[in-house]
Design brief:
- Helices cover about 45% and strands about 10% of the residues.
- Helix 6 (about 145-165) runs antiparallel to helix 7.
- The chain is built from eleven helices and eight strands.
- It has two domains: about 5-110 and about 140-185, 3-Layer(aba) Sandwich (Rossmann fold); about 195-300, Rossmann fold (3-Layer(aba) Sandwich), CATH 3.40.50.
Length: about 300
């Protein structure tokens, strides 16, 4: 958290005659990052959002309006190439002069490799490799679901905004500290909410939640699709049906950004509860309170899965 001495130093800098500056034009990639930047910019301005909340970032196709946002951007704050590899060329071509902050690459960010726990024992390796046509090595890009990462990013976002807009530096820093406090309070709420599902067995459509799960000490039995949301092969679907029976799975979580067709294929004829997890907050209002609401909403959704 920011110390009073730091705030005082910035205040002294501003009052000593720093040149008046305009609020930079900020573009963010996904709604959770937009929420964090909105918190820092509260009372000063608002960032632009590139990807709608109801789409998957993994294979998004940009629209002309998206390109226009990047062309006008002075500061681009995005999760990183691991989540949206298509943005690398877009930023190079459309935002050559903008300051670009790739959050996944900042220091003190907790990163996790794609997990291999969900390589099911009775899944045929050849079929698995053929259907995916690639491996699952590298960094799991769903980093925003770790509350500690979000708190770290608030500090970094405030610092870069203060550098680009020194007139409002004190506001940015204070907003970041307030945002960190709100995340801490939300985490306390989530611990209580999730206490009812601590030992429950569930399956997720898309292996996107390990940051959230590790932070709150919960874990699914399996994921239908791996972390990059690639469709599984027939052998994996068969293996998943076996897992459902063996582990007495209670529920499966779909996502509004992805088709539920695979869930229907795997769980048809079972008594498993089908409900929704929303890592992008597709139904939440954008703004400064978005990120705490996203975390709390996910916990409430998970709490449906209990005996």
């Amino acid at each position: 958290m920011f110390k009073p001495l730091v705030l005082a130093a910035f205040s002294s800098f501003v009052l000593s005659g720093a040149a008046k500056s305009e609020v930079p034009v900020v573009v963010t990639d996904i709604a959770p990052i937009h929420g964090l930047v909105s918190q820092v910019m509260k009372g000063v301005g608002a960032p632009e959002l590139l990807l709608r909340q109801d789409v998957s970032p993994h294979d998004y196709a940009m629209r002309p309006s998206d390109a226009a946002k990047l062309e006008n951007a002075e500061l681009v704050i995005w999760t990183g190439e691991a989540l949206t590899p298509w943005m690398t060329d877009a930023l190079e071509n459309l935002s050559p002069n903008a300051t670009k902050i790739q959050l996944i690459g900042l220091e003190q960010v907790n990163l996790r490799a794609f997990r291999t726990d969900f390589e099911l024992e009775d899944e045929d390796d050849h079929d698995h490799d053929h259907d995916h046509d690639h491996d699952h090595e590298g960094i799991d890009p769903h980093v925003w679901l770790d509350p500690q990462n979000a708190k770290t990013w608030l500090t970094s976002i405030a610092a870069v905004l203060a550098e680009n807009d020194p007139e409002n530096a004190v506001v940015y820093l204070a907003n970041a500290e307030r945002g960190q406090q709100e995340i801490d309070a939300t985490v306390d709420d989530i611990v209580e909410i999730l206490s009812v599902v601590a030992n429950q067995r569930y399956v997720v459509l898309h292996d996107a939640y390990q940051y959230f799960e590790a932070y709150f000490d919960i874990s699914p039995i399996a994921a239908i699709s791996q972390g990059d949301a690639v469709s599984p092969g027939p052998a994996r679907l068969t293996a998943l049906r076996n897992q459902i029976t063996e582990h007495a799975v209670a529920c499966v979580f779909s996502e509004p950004q992805l088709s539920s067709r695979l869930i229907d294929t795997v769980f048809e004829g079972t008594n498993v509860i089908v409900t929704e997890l929303d890592p992008m907050g597709s139904k939440l209002e954008l703004g400064a309170g978005f990120y705490p609401n996203l975390l709390r909403n996910m916990a409430v959704q998970m709490a449906v899965c209990h005996n």
